[in-house]
Amino acid sequence: MMRHLLSTADLSRDDALLILDTAEQLAQVSGRSIKKLPTLRGRTVVNLFFEDSTRTRISFEAAAKRLSADVINFSAKGSSVSKGESLKDTALTLQAMGADAVVIRHGASGAPHRLANWVDGSVVNAGDGTHEHPTQALLDAFTMRRRLGDLDGRRVTIVGDVLHSRVARSNVHLLHTLGAEVTLVAPPTLLPVAMGDWPCEVSYDFDAVLSKSDVVMMLRVQHERMNASYFPSAREYSRRYGLDPERLGRMPEEAIVMHPGPMNRGMEIAAEVADCARSTIVEQVTNGVTVRMAVLYLLLSGSEPAIGGNQ
Ligand code: NCD
After folding, report:
1. Residue 303: is its pLDDT beyond 90?
2. Which CATH number fits domain 134-284: 2.60.120.330, 3.40.50.1370, 2.40.170.20, 3.40.50.720?
3. How far apart are the first and last CA of the chain?
4. How far apart are the CA of 7 and the centre of ligand 1, in A?
5. What number of other Cβ atoms are within 10 A of residue 277's Cβ?
6. Is the distance from the beta carbon of residue 220 to the nearest atom of ligand 1 less than 6 Å?
7. Which of 27, 129, 146, 257 is the most buried (most CB within 10 A)?
């Protein structure tokens, strides 16, 4: 296992399967009344969040605590970062405090890569700008495997604001590595200009791919990253790219609906679709803890068994 988790593009098929299989083992613990394992006792995990987050921050904290690590939560607001301290000086401070792992979310694409050069511990990318969000893709793949079995040959359609989505990029690489066929659907204005090396298909027509999808993953329209108008109106966007009950009805019977959250209910996804039995949105959050446990465990103590031993 590698020292850092910065990008799903770095993961081999064996690495990815090891993380997913380890998460499957650790999921057994989540079903117990006492959910804690002693595996990372004495290790320190720092959550370093420069951008807002609900699910990812809480689930990394829960994952580290369930493995008995000491957790330090650092949010840029209220820290010396607001006094202008640089990422490098912040990193050196964490280093001086003996962090074994740093989980970082940052608005700048590439920030986790820089951090990895400055600290001795493991760095986990929890979302960097519009670049990658590897643990989200891993929890998505874990959720798909649980619902659909092996991902080889499965058709996954990812719909919406691909341009600003680190979730889409991480999923495209990981799903390709796991043998799935990915189609991205978006208006031309919400697709990156250079996608030559992305291992996926692209379509502008949601309705044309609906009936051929095993998974439909909706992306949030990321208003906070938009500095211009990318589509005529919210209504027009929903009409062409929103998942409503009528479109849900045209998906294959076994197909599932996913969304990484947070959702714009009524825009990219109708409330009744988000809450229906075929939606895995809440499951994705639960699975996020398990998958992040697997990642922290493999990075920090890969040689000891995940479960068993002196429990
Ligand atoms: C995503 C993110 O922050 O990249 N959310 C998440 O981590 N669950 C997607 C988003 O913000 O739309």
Report:
1. no
2. 3.40.50.1370
3. 24
4. 15
5. 7
6. yes
7. 257
Confidence of residue 194 (pLDDT cuts 50, 70, 90): confident
| Token pair belonging to 263 | 């959702």
* CB 55 near ligand 1, within 6 Å: yes
Query: How far, in Å, CA of 127 to CA of 174, rounded?
Result: 15
Nearest to 125 by CA among 156, 158, 170, 87: 170
Rounded Cα distance between 260 and 180, Å, is 19
Domain boundaries, the chain: 8-133+285-300, 134-284
Ligand 1 geometric centre to CA of 54 (Å): 9
pLDDT tens across 240-292, in order? 999 999 999 999 999 999 999 999 999 999 999 999 999 999 999 999 999 99
Model pLDDT, residue 202: 96
CATH 3.40.50.1370 fits 8-133+285-300, yes or no: yes
Measured from the Cα of 222, ligand 1's closest atom is: 12
Q: Is the CB of 129 under 6 A from ligand 1?
A: no
- pLDDT tens digits, 135-176: 999 999 999 999 999 999 999 999 999 999 999 999 999 999
Q: Whats the size of the chain, residue-wise?
A: 311
Q: Which residue has the higher pLDDT, 262 or 95?
A: 262
Select from 51, 125, 133 the residue to mutate for testing ligand 1; criterion: most ligand atoms less than 8 Å from CB: 133
How many angstroms does the Cα of residue 59 sit away from the middle of ligand 1?
Answer: 13
Full-prediction pTM beyond 0.85? Answer: yes
pLDDT of residue 78: 73
The type of residue at 73 is N
Q: Which atom of ligand 1 is nearest to the CA of 166?
A: 4
Ligand 1 atom nearest to CA at 288? 8
210 is written with which tokens? 């609906």
